[in-house]
Amino acid sequence: MEIKTVGIIGAGQMGSGIAQVCAVAGLNVILNDVNEAAIARGIAGIASNLERMVAKQKLSADDRDAALARIRGAVQVEELAPAGFLIEAATENLEIKQKILQGVERIASRDSIIATNTSSVSITKLAKSLEHADRFIGMHFFNPVPVMGLVEVISGVQTGEQALAETLALAKRLDKTPIAVKNAPGFVVNRILVPMINEAIFVLQEGLASAEDIDNGMKQGTNQPIGPLALADLIGLDTVLSIMEVFYRDFGDTKYRPAQLLKEMVDAGRLGRKTKRGFYQY
Ligand code: CAA
């Protein structure tokens, strides 16, 4: 089935990034959040990203206007009904996501695919709360969504072949590179990446080197575009902590214990770029 309209639940950093790449790829987007202000913030962020692309001559002014015109805000979940593909990008919390997904399933047409952009909640567990779990799948984008090429496509135990095929096809249509993976804590990329970031925080906590030198070491020594501490600030320290907590709980292995400094930073509200202060000031 050709997808013409994508419904996105959550207009935050990830949801608005996904909305942007869908609209630029020529898809209609219905962007849902709990209130008008959240939707307006999301759309303003998209407009400013597209503006930057126009200034860099990566997008024409006409294409920018057309992309923005394809995005429609929606406060009521019922307004998502015309979407052939729905992507939930709300808070990283099992109960909240289950509630949203159940609401979405109630209004979605029977042949639409429902995906979640979760980075840490089990696809199999989320699927359990749905009636038609075969059409439910993980579609995990990376931050910043318009820049990062990867999409992890995650099948839970119940996910059907059709949902997998349609999700891989959509990712390609968005000009992303999808990888198909099975459900497990952190899937594939975060399972490798986030413990590395946590280890960098341990190194800082132990006073072995400054934040700048740890990051420079990893940048110059392993060709990463930004160091692990700067990346933690980009991802959000609360998200890094919650992923480590999932690993620690679900694998039951002490190698996944979150660094105390990470917990302290989160308790202090120093969550990285989004609060203008993390390991660095913004
Ligand atoms: N939205 C859209 N475009 C953005 C952007 C954003 N938020 N931030 C940067 N860009 C674009 C810039 O416009 C610029 O575009 P051009 O090349 O066309 O000029 C390009 O990205 C590079 O940006 P800058 O020159 O400003 O800065 P930079 O070279 O330091 O790049 C970066 C910024 C792309 C974020 C780069 O530092 C990088 O790739 N970092 C690693 C990001 C990463 O690993 N992300 C994955 C996080 S893990 C995750 O997301 C999974 C999870 O579940 C936690």
TrEMBL record:
InterPro entries found in the cross-reference section: 3-OHacyl-CoA_DH (IPR022694), 3-OHacyl-CoA_DH_CS (IPR006180), 3-OHacyl-CoA_DH_NAD-bd (IPR006176), 3HC_DH_C (IPR006108), 6-PGluconate_DH-like_C_sf (IPR008927), 6PGD_dom2 (IPR013328), NAD(P)-bd_dom_sf (IPR036291)
Gene Ontology annotations of biological process type: fatty acid metabolic process
Annotated site residues (Important for catalytic activity) in this chain: 140
3-hydroxyacyl-CoA dehydrogenase C-terminal domain location: 186-282
Pfam families: 3HCDH, 3HCDH_N
Swiss-Prot/TrEMBL keywords: NAD, Oxidoreductase
Keyword Oxidoreductase among UniProt keywords: yes
3-hydroxyacyl-CoA dehydrogenase NAD binding domain location: 5-183
NAD keyword on record: yes
Example of a GO MF term: oxidoreductase activity, acting on the CH-OH group of donors, NAD or NADP as acceptor
Residues binding NAD(+): 10-15, 33, 92, 97, 119, 143, 274
Family recorded in the similarity comment: Belongs to the 3-hydroxyacyl-CoA dehydrogenase family.
Protein name: 3-hydroxybutyryl-CoA dehydrogenase
